[in-house]
Amino acid sequence: MKREIEQEMSYLQVTAKEQLHEWVEQIKEFSSEGKTADYIPALKDMDSSQLGICLIGADGTVIQSGDYESVFTLQSISKVISFIAACLCCGIPYVLERVDVEPTGDAFNSIIRLEMHKPGKPFNPMINAGALTVSSLLSGETAKEKLSYLFDVIIMLTGKTPLINETVFESEWQTSHRNRALAYYLKETNYLQGEVEEVLEVYLKQCSIEVTTEDIALIGLILSLDGYHPVFHKQVIPKEVAKLTKALMLTCGMYNASGKFAAFVGMPAKSGVSGGIMSLVPPNTKKQSPFPDGCGIGIYSPAIDEYGNSVKGVTLLKKIAKEWDLSIF
Ligand code: DON
């Protein structure tokens, strides 16, 4: 997307760009922890040494470093977009009747609390049980119609028509036994609307949408600005939906590492097993911040930890948050 508001960088931003290159190089070289998501065969062979980042400021400044041009699939970052889309088509009260807003402390694909938490309502839209329910609420009857609605929302945010990585989709479609089990359980408890296989197709295809760090940084920026699109100059997400989404990212976006992430990074964020992280910094009053009017952040680095979060990505975010004092707390 052509960004008409691009402008000259401030002194702080020029310094920030240099620092960022240094940190990316250091982390790429010294951090070797984590491994690519092997439970999805098509993700297993991604180059785990990669690390890329894109920051877009509210003033239009773009700072990129490392492997920022790599294309990867949204995976769980799509849960943020489908939640926004469901709120747009059904309204917040309808969505929250079907999915709660509480963190679980369990793995993203955990099934255990569905039966323990009566009457089986998913805890939040950022875990698989909640995301499957949310995908079933999207406007349309068939998988095709629901995806077309989701695509329209993505176009409204990024200005780009999404592409599905069919290899990743097929690979997960064949191996998604746990998601199938979750969806059938949710069908039985009436939280999931429509047919299980249709909903599963929507969910796995939304996970397989290809993006770059710039695409997710832009979505992060729109959320940072409470739903206002700084390039299209209009409110594309209602403020109430944007605020709710950010609260969910902060409390549940990094799964059972969300508490640690809030404590040691302190920014709303959402990860995906392909190694992407979408994060944001709200406008703040800290004078030393290179982005005082807020920014969106997109990161990609495919080696993930046991929670499903990018190891190098989290390390880099921790460094940035500390050095530039970006924590919201
Ligand atoms: O449902 C799944 O297993 C994946 N397609 C998405 C999971 C995911 O990205 C969890 N992330 N950190």
TrEMBL record:
GO terms for biological process, alphabetical: glutamate biosynthetic process; L-glutamine catabolic process
Keywords: Acetylation, Hydrolase
Reactions catalysed, as given in the entry: L-glutamine + H2O = L-glutamate + NH4(+)
GO molecular function, one term: glutaminase activity
Pfam families linked to this entry: Glutaminase
Listed EC numbers: 3.5.1.2
SUPFAM superfamilies cross-referenced by the UniProt entry: beta-lactamase/transpeptidase-like
Transmembrane domains' residue ranges: none
Positions that bind substrate: 76, 128, 172, 179, 203, 255, 273
InterPro entries: Beta-lactam/transpept-like (IPR012338), Glutaminase (IPR015868)
Quaternary structure and interacting proteins, as annotated: Homotetramer.
Family as reported in the entry's similarity comment: Belongs to the glutaminase family.
The protein, known as: Glutaminase
Gene (name only): glsA
